Amino acid sequence: MAGTAGSRPAFGSFARRVTPMPPEQRVPGAAPEKGPSGGPARFEWSEDGLTLRLLGSWTTAALSTLDGLWGGRERPVGTVTIDATGLAGLDTAGALLLHRLREDLEGQGISPRLVGLDERRADLLELVVARAQPRSAGLPGGGIHRPRGLERVGRVTLDWAGEGMAMLSFGGAVSLASLRALASPLRVRWRQVLQVVEQDGVRALLVLGMLSFLLGVVIAYQSGVQLRVYGGNLYVVDLVTITVLRELGPMMTAIVVAGRSGSAYAAQIGTMQVTEEVDALRSIGVAPLDLLVLPKVIGLIIALPLLTIFADVVSVVGAMVMSALMLDLSPGVFVRRIPEAVTISSLMTGLAKAPVFAVTIAVVGCYQGFQVRGGADSVGRHTTTSVVQAIVLVLVIDAAFSVIYSWMGI
Amino acid sequence: MDGDHASEIGGSTVLPADHPVEMSGIRTCFGPTCIHDNLDLTVNRGEILALVGASGCGKSVLLREMILLARPSAGQVRLFGEKVGSLDGAEANRLRRRIGILFQQGALFNSLTVLENISVPLREQTDLPLPLIRDIALLKLRLAGLTPDAAPKYPSQLSGGMHKRAALARALAMDPDLLVLDEPGTGLDPAGADALDELIRDLHQSLGLTVVMTTHDLDTLWRVSHRVAFLAERRILATGTMEELSESADPRVASYFQGPRARAARSISWNRG
Q: pLDDT for A92-130, tens place per residue?
C-alpha cells in the first residue's frame, strides 16, 4: 500500500475529486501503522478495493499534510467499508473530514460502512455530524457585495459627496458651538485650551525650529547660487523674507502641526469613540464638542500664529547664517536690508492664514476621530485620513488666499 | 460530578499527559510586591479546574503564566509534561497550539468577521485548503452554540453572549487539549451565563477537554467545576471539590465559600445529586 500511504483524501468540500484508485496502483501487503502519534492522517485501500483503512492521526495539526491523491481513479460499486481500527487520533476536524468522506461516497451512490470506531470516537463523530453545516446549505459569508466598474465609480462619488457634506455639517456644529462660547466665554474649558497650547504649541517648537532653520538655509543657498551670478547677493534677503513670511512659514507650520497634532486629535477621539467614552460623556450631559473639539480649535487658533512667527524668525535666521557663510553677506547688512525688503503687510498676509489653517487642522482631525467605528484598524485608517485631508486642505486654502490677495492687490 | 468521571473522558487527540499543567514554586513579583510566593498548582487531565480568589489576588496573572503569555519571577511551569522555561520560540508555539484561550473581553479581531476570526488559528497554523478551513470554522461556530447567520457578522454587531461564544469558537479552532477560560461569565446576563456554563460542560464532555477557568461566579463553580483551587495569601490555599471547600474548617476558605451568596448558589446547583 506504499502507493497510497501519505495520500490525502481530497474530500471536504472538494468532493468531486473523490474517486477510488485504479487496481494497478493497489500494492498489497502494507500493514496499517499504529502508534500513539501515528503520523499524519492518511488512508489506504484494501486489495479488493472495497475497504478503506484510515491511518494516522486525524487531528487538526496532522491533517495539513494530506493532499490530493484521489485524482483519476475508478469508483467501486456497492458497499465500501471504512475501517477506522488503525486510527491513531481523531478530533473534531478529523471527524468532520470523515463525515464529509461518507457524504461524498453516498453522493456517488456508494454506501459506506464505518467499522472499528471506539465508543468515544463514535460519540465525537455523532456530535460533529449533528453540528456540521449541511452541505446543501452552503457556506455563509459570501454575501458581501463588492461593486465594480461604473457602480463602483458611482458609489465612491456618493461616498465622497457624503463625506464632504458630513464634514461641512460638522464644521457647522463647531461654528455654532464657537458662537455659544463667544456668548459665554467663561464656559469654555480654558484649562484644556492651555493644555492644547502647551502640547501642540510649545512642544512643537523644537521640531518646527529645526525644519524652519533648514528651510531658510536651503532657500538662501538655492537663490544665492543664482543671484551671485548677477552680483545681486543682497537680493537674497528680499527673496527669502518675502517667500518665508508670505508663503512658506505659515504653510510649513501648518503641515508640521497637521502631522503632529491633527493625527493625535483623530487618534484620541477615535479611541474614545471605540471605548464608548464619547457616549459616556454625552450621557453625563457633557457635549463632546465642548469638551473635545472647542478647546482644540481655540488652542490651535492661539498656538498656530505664534508658531508661525517663530518659524518665520528661525527661517530668516537660517538664511542669514547661510548668507554669511556663502555669500559674504554679514548679518548686520542682512538685518538692515530686511525693512527695505518687506513691509509689515507681508508678515500680516502670512499670519492671517494661520488661524484659518488652525481651524482646518483641528476640525478635520476631530471630525475624523468621530468617524471611527469599530476597532483598532478604523482608528488607524481615520488617523491617516485626517493627516492627508488636513494637508491637502491647507494647500488648497493657501492657494485660495493667494487668489484673494491678488484681487485685493496686496 | 467528580474526578472519576473526568479521567474517563480523556483527550481523544495526541500524546496524553496526565497533568497538562504543573506549576511548582511559582513566585511572581512586580517590583517590591509579590502576588505569588512558592505557589504549586497541578491540573489533572480531563478535569474542569476552577481558580478562585479575591479580586487582585493574581488569578489572571497565574493564568497568563500558564499559557505562556507571562513568565513567573521564579518557579517552574510544565505544560503537557514539558518544561516551559527552556523552550525556544518554535517549541513554545507548538505548545500554544494545544491550548485554546477565551480572553476575558473575548479579544475577537474587530476587523474580521466571526468566521474569519475562527479561521485565523487554522490559517496560521495549518496548511489546510481554505474551503476545509471554512467548513471546520463553521463546525466550531455551531459547537459553540451559534447559528451560521452569525458567521458573516463583525464582532461589533454581536451581543455580549454571542461575542463570548464566538470567542469560545475561536479558542476551540485548533481542537486544543487544554481550554483556558478567563472569567467566562463576565458581562453576561444570568441566563446567558447559565447557557455558557452548560455549553462548557457539554463541550468538555463531548470533546474530552481539560478546562482551567477563573471565575467569581459561584453558580458556575457549583455547576461546572470538578475541582476548585482557592488562591489566597500568595499561594493555593486549598483545593478540592466545591463540597469539600464549602465545608472547610479553615476560616479563610470558609468565608469565601460560605457567604449568603455562596449558600444561595449551592441550593440551586445542578451539580449535586
A: 888 888 888 888 778 777 788 888 888 888 888 888 888
Hunting for cell 488636513 — which residue is that?
A: A390
For every residue of A345-358, which 3-state class applies, written as one string?
HHHHHHHHHHHHHH
CA of B146, closest CA in chain A: separation in Å? Answer: 10
Are A362 and A293 found together in one domain?
yes
Beta strand A79-83 pairing with A111-115: parallel
- Are residue A208 and residue A266 in the same domain, yes or no? yes
Nearest-angstrom CA–CA distance, A361 and A368:
11
List all residues 6 or more positions away from B251 whose beta carbon is below 8 Å from its beta carbon: none
Chain A residue numbers with beta carbons less than 8 Å from the beta carbon of B129 are 12, 14
Does the beta carbon of B136 lie under 8 angstroms from any beta carbon of chain A?
Answer: yes
A202 shares a domain with A127: no
Separation of alpha carbons B205 and B228, rounded Å:
18
- Inspect the interface and report whether the beta carbons of A60 and B132 lie closer than 8 Å: no
ipTM of the complex: 0.75
Q: Indicate whether A296 and A353 sit together in one domain.
A: yes
Q: Identify the closest residue of chain A to B97 by CA–CA distance.
A: A61
Q: What residues make up the domain containing A103?
A: 15-136
Residue finishing a domain among A136, A162, A188: A136
**Nine-digit cell string for B47:** 478535569
Strand ranges of the sheet holding B82-83, from the earlier edge strand across to the other edge: B33-43, B21-30, B74-79, B82-83
271-290 in chain A: CB under 8 A from chain B: none
Chain A within 8 Å of B110 (Cβ-Cβ)? Answer: yes
pLDDT for position A37:
52
Q: What is the pLDDT of residue A302?
A: 95
Residue A233 lies in a domain: yes
Task: Give A97→chain B minimum CA distance, Å.
Answer: 8
Band of the pLDDT at B234, cuts 50, 70, 90?
A: confident
Amino acid at B45: R
Q: If you count residue pairs, one on A and one on B, with CB atoms under 8 Å apart, how many are there?
A: 122
For residue A91, give how far its alpha carbon lies from the nearest alpha carbon of chain B (Å): 6
Q: Is position A153 within any domain?
A: no
A187/A127 same-domain check: no
Q: What is the pLDDT of residues A153-208, one digit of tens each?
A: 999 999 999 988 999 999 999 999 999 888 988 888 899 999 999 999 999 999 99
Q: For B43, what's the count of Cα atoms within 13 Å in the CB-facing half-sphere? A: 30
In the structure, what pLDDT confidence band is assigned to residue A138 with cuts at 50, 70 and 90? low
Domain membership of residue A165 (yes or no) is: no
Question: What are A262-288's pLDDT values in tens digits?
Answer: 999 999 999 999 888 988 888 887 888
List the beta bridge partners of residue B83: B78
Query: What's the number of domains chain A is made of?
Result: 2
**Residue A343 maps to a domain:** yes
A124 and A185 assigned to the same domain:
no
**pLDDT band at B270; cut points 50, 70, 90:** low
Higher-scoring residue by pLDDT: A78, B14: A78
Query: Are A101 and A179 found together in one domain?
Result: no
B78 shares contact with chain A (CB less than 8 Å): no
Q: How confident is the model at residue A73 (pLDDT cuts 50, 70, 90)?
A: low
Residue A97 to residue B12, Cβ atoms within 8 A: no
A127 inside 8 A of chain B by CB: yes
Among B80, B108, B114, B132, the residue to mutate for chain A (most A Cβ within 10 A):
B132
Tell me the residue length of chain B: 273
User: Is residue A30 located within the same domain as residue A130?
Assistant: yes
The answer to whether the Cβ–Cβ distance between B142 and A14 falls below 8 Å is no
